[in-house]
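for the recovery benchmark. tokens below, seq after
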């Protein structure tokens, strides 16, 4: 449970930093004036992103494995951009959440999100290790 919560917070922080860096990616809170609502919105979007990436992303990666090899992994940028667009679509159904201005903004946002998330996971790796004993 602790590992899940740490990963959720890391994804939310990475998403927040991505919205600051990439102009075409933003998050719309369900209550514009409340800071707590903004934090909850980022956590909800990070949860949806984790679910979409874990379920749909893994299925796409398994099916498209030969294409990944053929393109030397460059297809992953396109797939990650599409997954970010799927997250934006899912969260927009609730009336708040992730907003991506276009496909290429999605690809750039996914690249930045992956880099920031990877760096944060590397820094916080000791917190997510399971202790034996």
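predicted aa per position
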């Amino acid at each position: 449970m602790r590992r899940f919560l740490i990963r959720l917070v890391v994804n939310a922080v990475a998403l927040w930093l991505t919205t600051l860096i990439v102009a075409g990616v933003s998050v719309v809170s369900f209550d514009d004036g409340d800071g707590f609502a903004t934090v909850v919105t980022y956590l909800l979007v990070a949860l949806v992103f984790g679910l979409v990436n874990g379920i749909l992303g893994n299925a796409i990666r398994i099916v498209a494995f030969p294409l990944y090899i053929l393109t030397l992994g460059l297809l992953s940028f396109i797939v990650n951009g599409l997954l970010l667009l799927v997250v934006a679509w899912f969260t927009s159904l609730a009336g708040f959440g992730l907003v991506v201005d276009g496909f290429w903004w999605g690809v750039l946002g996914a690249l930045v999100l992956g880099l920031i998330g990877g760096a944060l996971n590397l820094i916080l790796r000791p917190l997510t290790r399971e202790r034996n004993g």
